[in-house]
Design brief:
Elements lengths: L1 H18 L5 H15 L3 H13 L7 H16 L4 E23 L3 E2 L2 E3 L11 E8 L2 H6 L9 E4 L12 H17 L4 E5 L25 E4 L1 H12 L5 E23 L4 E11 L9 H21 L4 E8 L7 H9 L7 E6 L7 E7 L5 H11 L5 E3 L21 E6 L4 H4 L12 H20 L12
Parallel strand pairs: 4-5, 5-6, 6-7, 9-10, 9-11, 12-13
Antiparallel strand pairs: 1-2, 1-8, 3-7, 4-8, 8-10, 12-14
Helix pairs in contact: 2-8, 2-12, 3-8, 8-12, 10-12
């Protein structure tokens, strides 16, 4: 009988424990305070204005990139972060000096273009050649060997507009490897329609790659209206000849820094929630959307948390270096911290502009889902919908984490309907950021990071499939 009673008491105790909420009523009151504080504060916009005005564009390795590192260090300290430090990252440094283009035949007219990252220079006089149009990268790959000798290959693929930006992946294939495929066919230059949903006459830059053993040829994108013009001319059976002139330089190995600020946790400071963005930007605009907004709003979110309550676990903001040239800061960070990845209890990166957060998604173990659902409930007050697929992939700088067992990854999905109108262009400037939408982003990141850091249960990642 005593054994039976003992067993019943243990079972009752277990069920009561299992039914205990992840957050107390006091914690939820703090969440409400935090949400209100972040939603009514201009801090994130002030930080973004400062970065884009006082520093401006931040191409990795440039003087402005170094100024951005100093700016971030100073701001972290000014905001009262407990720890502020730098971690080195190296990357292949590249510069853009000048660029212009012309349609020469059938009639002369300007061609609005920009060099892709790592593009080689043309000769001083540029390169001139007949344009051969392909609708897709696959069409170019299928072209006969040497069929483009002395010509300029052009891919006309148009990116589709979606709220989640899912048209980017198919379009960016041509940017990454198009020049390699063109060179294999004998082309002297490579040109592509911008990876863009815009109608303005700004060309969109971005990263590109060469391949050992394949001739490096100049590599440019053209603005969408210019792409339409070339397509119309070719459709009229006109021979289209263009001149492309870009002056660039590969400068060997460059050195930059991830800038890191942390508010220490009160019970398990070695464990932390990682939020952040990338500090660098392309050189055409001032990097307000990509990714000044992510930098500013995550810094501000952490500051707002510190003003309400220090959570059990630390909140760490990582501003990654040299993302635009190939995720070099992220690679360095996760390599340096490889032995302690299990200390990252949750990770999310803001790198998709500054429009509203509309969805919240996790990638966690089944045992962690009650915490996720509790966070989602609090985010609903910010009109953020819970996406229950549990398949979050994280921002670009979290790619090194995806195939590890080190951390649970989260997405705070932003509305990207218009993001690729400005992405990687001279038009990526502060006036494109709505301060009210930036506040909503800041509040969403603050609520997420605080609750993940202060939950009763430590969030765990899904086991990696072997």
């Amino acid at each position: 009988m005593n054994k039976l009673i003992t067993g019943m008491l243990l079972a009752s105790s277990f069920l009561a424990s299992a039914a205990e909420p992840e957050f107390t009523s006091k914690q939820l009151q703090q969440v409400e305070q935090l949400r209100q504080s972040a939603s009514n504060s201009d801090l994130s916009y002030q930080l973004l204005e400062s970065l884009t005005t006082e520093v401006g564009p931040r191409l990795p390795g440039t003087e402005n990139d170094k100024k951005a590192v100093a700016w971030a260090q100073a701001k972290f300290k000014e905001l009262g972060f407990d720890k502020v430090w730098l971690e080195e990252a190296t990357f292949p440094e590249w510069r853009r000096f000048s660029e212009n283009g012309k349609i020469l035949t059938p009639s002369e007219q300007p061609l609005h273009l920009t060099a892709l990252g790592h593009s080689v220079s043309t000769p001083k006089e540029g390169i001139t050649g007949e344009v051969v149009l392909f609708e897709t990268l696959d069409e170019l790959i299928a072209a006969p060997k040497n069929s483009l000798k002395g010509k300029i290959a052009y891919i006309n693929y148009r990116m589709n507009r979606h709220i989640d930006g899912n048209g980017y992946g198919p379009a960016v294939r041509a940017r990454s490897t198009g020049s390699v495929e063109a060179a294999k066919k004998g082309a002297t230059g490579y040109m592509m329609r911008s990876v863009s949903t815009a109608h303005h006459r700004f060309a969109h830059t971005g990263g590109s790659h060469y391949k050992d053993g394949v001739t490096k040829i100049p590599n440019v994108t053209i603005a969408n209206p210019d792409a339409d013009q070339i397509a119309r001319l070719i459709a009229l059976d006109k021979k289209v000849t263009v001149n492309i002139n870009v002056q660039t330089e590969d400068r060997g190995q460059g050195r930059g820094y991830n800038v890191i600020g942390q508010f220490n946790g009160t019970q398990n400071p070695e464990q932390y929630v990682l939020i952040g963005g990338h500090l660098d930007s392309w050189d055409l605009g001032t990097g307000a959307l990509d990714d000044g907004a992510g930098v500013a709003l995550t810094m501000a979110a952490a500051k707002h948390i510190s003003e309400i309550k220090r959570p059990k676990r630390s909140v760490r903001v990582v501003l990654f270096a040299a993302e635009e040239l190939g995720l070099w800061g992220a690679k360095a960070y996760f390599k340096q911290h490889a032995k302690e990845l299990n200390n990252i209890v949750a990770a999310a990166e803001s790198d998709f502009g500054a429009d509203v957060v509309y969805g919240f998604e996790s990638n966690v173990s089944a045992e962690s889902l009650p915490v996720v659902r509790a966070i989602a409930k609090e985010l609903s007050a910010l009109n953020v919908e819970y996406i229950a697929k549990n398949g979050a992939r994280g921002g670009p700088d979290l790619i090194p984490l995806r195939n590890t067992e080190g951390a649970a990854i989260f997405d705070l999905h932003q509305d990207g309907t218009d993001y690729f109108d400005y992405h990687h262009t001279a038009d990526d400037t502060l006036d494109k950021v709505d301060p009210e939408k930036l506040k909503q982003n800041t509040a969403a990141y603050a609520v997420f990071a605080f609750m993940a850091a202060d939950a009763k249960t430590t969030i765990k990642p899904k086991p990696v499939k072997k």
